[in-house]
Amino acid sequence: MTRRHTQQSRNGFTRAIPPAFTLIELLVVISIIVVLISILLPALGSSREAARSVKCQTNLRSIGQGLEMYMAQESKGLLPKVRPLNEGTNTNDPSLLDILAKYVDAPIPYKNEGEENWVVTDPYRCPSDRAGSDAATGFRPLWQSNGTSYEYAAASLMVFSELATVRNVQFGVSKAYEVHRPPLPVVLDADDWHNPRFAVNKRGEVSSEVRWRRNAVYYGDWHVESPPYQSPESQQSLFEDIVQFGGGLGG
Prior knowledge:
Elements (H helix, E strand, L loop, with lengths): L2 E6 L5 E7 L2 H51 L22 H5 L9 E2 L6 E2 L22 H5 L3 E3 H11 L5 H11 L5 E5 L18 H4 L4 E3 L5 E2 L10 H10 L6
Antiparallel strand pairs: 1-2, 3-4, 5-6, 6-7, 7-8
Helix pairs in contact: 4-5, 5-7
């Protein structure tokens, strides 16, 4: 506890010396501050990630609205048959980025001549995409090395279906999306950076299911939420629908 001391001045009056903390009291105060910081810092980090996730969902909603307009005006309601979103652009083989340029009010990602990194703005860049998982790119963020933080899931299904010789890939995948319940994600985060346990240097230590945490925009009403993990085995029924609606195999 603090102690109050007195001291006699030259004119004979006594005056009180301001109380001071003892060493024990000072250590107690420091300990309390350390405990409070250890409690508040994780909460602050969680709040920041929550804000980044909300921004990511806003980006995906914008992309979904662009897709919806494209399908209504140019593809008769079918999902576009283009390359996956996270592979940049090519005038000979258009990607989703190319067709969205007309329907999303934002510049599509691009590279300056002679430079390695993409120039990317919203809505193609997730704020949680701050470190990649590929050592070959120096663990750069995915938007920086690939041109966007997101991937077009329907394109991956179309590529797989094409390799499996489905006759009408675009129609088959589109109709499978249309009838599937629950609804399927169309565009989603290309990695699990929203998971608080996400660490690019520890990817091999946990399974894909444990690591999974992404945002996605869904077919139909184009709502945005976090999709559950789906193993390759769980997608067998989806592929069967694609084959059926796509006119069978042998295309």
